[in-house]
Amino acid sequence: MKNILIIGSLGQLGSEIAIRLRQLYGNDHVVLTDIRSDTNQELIASGPFCVVDCRDGKALSDLVVKHKIDTIYHLAAILSATAEKNPLQAWDVNMNGLMTALEIARIHKCALFTPSSIGAFGPTTPKKFTPQDTIQRPTSMYGVSKVAGELLCDYYHHKYDVDTRGVRYPGIISSLTPPGGGTTDYAIEIYYAALRDHHYECFLQGDTYLDMMYMPDAVNAAVQIMEADPSKLRHRNAFNVAAMSFCPEEQAAYIRTHIPNFTISYRVDPVKQAIADSWPDSLEDYAARVEWGWKPTYDLARMTSDMIQTIRKRMKGEK
Ligand code: NAD
Ligand code: SER
């Protein structure tokens, strides 16, 4: 049985990874931490939880020893759009948080999962079917921290034999916990606006293609890669994982199959548009498929049906 520590467990990804890991390994075997405690009360109450800053190595080490932790999911980060507003804070949290987790993993011999992102690519990266191993010269602070993070995780694996593993997530779409300040957040807001107002004003241009993934697949990726046979892993930090690629116009067309009078207009945010334009349109994920059996289950049609059904129920006050 694993004993797992999640750092940044109340965010969009952390809250759903935490639920799945507690289902798989037992509530008491999955210790949650975050810098805040003002959200997801049901999750907090379901097992051990501590308010800890991800840069506080002493507090996190104490938790690792107390709970005999062998696996860490490090999910605390400042996302792309927020990072461009305060690059120094983003560098501090993203890099010093990761270094803290890596040092704890090294000292206490823990496996470490931490996500990279499509943000780790830049304008000189091949835009379509972006390969696993390619040019990575991002132009956002978020992207710079993600490339540095991938390199650091590989360094800790090669130099200290720490079992570091990661994926490059596309934009993640979900309905349980709101997204944390990313460029891809439009693809979630659009569903709420469609159901509430039958209209959405999008902050990206209608023809901006980006890779996206529905949360159940993102959670599967996080669990599967940590269960993978290490002898099969030629890559580690970090695997491209893909599920679907679409632009706001296409997403709106799929929403119209459920809400025929839905309309979309555009008021472009230049900072977010510049970030989106610097990212790939679509990723190629052959290495993840071959090395640990990655296979997504949701496409745009299936995800749209599920998002609309789930949000509609929640708006009516049903579970
Ligand atoms: P999020 O912003 O929703 O959640 C991050 C969590 O970290 C929050 O609960 C926040 O309170 C916590 N946090 C922030 N600063 C902290 C600190 N100093 N100490 C401790 N906790 C702190 O982000 P997310 O979407 O859940 O992303 C998780 C990871 O996945 C990040 O590394 C992110 O870069 C990566 N990722 C996310 C997406 C996406 O679309 N959501 C896509 C690619 C990669
Ligand atoms: N969804 C994330 C963001 O937009 C991608 O890493 O920041």
Keywords:
single chain, 319 residues, alpha/beta, Rossmann fold, UDP-galactose 4-epimerase, domain 1, 2 domains, 6-stranded parallel β-sheet, 3-stranded parallel β-sheet, 12 helices, 14 strands, 45% helix, globular, binds nicotinamide-adenine-dinucleotide, binds serine
Describe the protein's architecture and organization:
The structure is a single chain. With 319 residues, the chain is an alpha/beta fold. It folds into two domains: 4-171 and 214-240, NAD(P)-binding Rossmann-like Domain (Rossmann fold, 3-Layer(aba) Sandwich); 172-212 and 243-281 and 298-315, UDP-galactose 4-epimerase, domain 1, CATH 3.90.25.10. Helices cover 45% and strands 15% of the residues. The protein has helices spanning 12-25, 41-45, 57-66, 80-85, 87-108, 141-160, 186-197, 215-227, 248-256, 270-278, 286-292, 300-315, and strands spanning 4-7, 30-34, 49-51, 71-74, 111-113, 116-117, 164-165, 167-169, 171-173, 199-202, 210-214, 239-240, 244-246, 263-266. The strands form four sheets. A six-stranded parallel β-sheet has the order 3-2-1-4-5-7, with helices on both faces. β1 (4-7), α1 and β2 (30-34) form a beta-alpha-beta unit. α3 packs parallel to α5 (87-108), α5 packs parallel to α6 (141-160) and α7 packs parallel to α9 (248-256). The radius of gyration is 19 Å and the shape is globular. The protein starts with a strand and ends with a helix. 45% of the residues are buried. The mean pLDDT is 97. The structure holds nicotinamide-adenine-dinucleotide and serine. Nicotinamide-adenine-dinucleotide is lined by residues 8, 10-14, 34-36, 53-55, 75-77, 79, 93, 97, 115, 117, 169, 171-172, 179-180, 182, 184.
